[in-house]
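YM 10:42: DUF659 domain-containing protein sequence, as discussed on the call
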Amino acid sequence: MVSAIQRVGLGVKPPMAYELSRPILDEEVEEVTKWIEEYKQSWPRTGITLMNDGWLNKVSKNEFLNFLAYSPKGTAFLSSKEVSGTKKDANFYVRLYDKIVEEVGDKHIVQFITDNEHACVSMGSKLMDKRKHLVWTTCAAHSIDLMLEEIGEIKIVKETLKEAREHSKKKEIIRPAITRFATDYLAVDSIRESE
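YM 10:58: structure's back
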């Protein structure tokens, strides 16, 4: 994008704040809405995988669950539910997922994927009992994260990481991890690369 701006030269005037906040934004909303409607047209033919991702707003401390639909045509955001202050047990997740399934359309969902926390595992079984055609799967990335977290607790691994940090010549060995539990393994790789 920068090189395209450079090629055009100094005569380019950026859009005004009003243009960005109204006409241009409205055009983008219209384009995305049209894409989502076309996307939904493929659901009867291909079905979708319903996925969710939880996150915490670190400023407001509000917790959210975002729901996404995946199909061969791509992934689309469906909705976000604020879940702050709720008891997140299996019954909570069953009610929440049941509501989302109804909103999306039971006949379109082939599979749903959740984290591996106990309440989600219990919910998966309950929802499959209720809706026989659905398949529930745990999130592979979350499973790997949990395995790495447990491996990181092994005494020799902890000691090795501690010693590696002491010999890093005060260089930063931890880089932001794509997944939080992979940080130790990225740190060791960083040490290896800096030698």
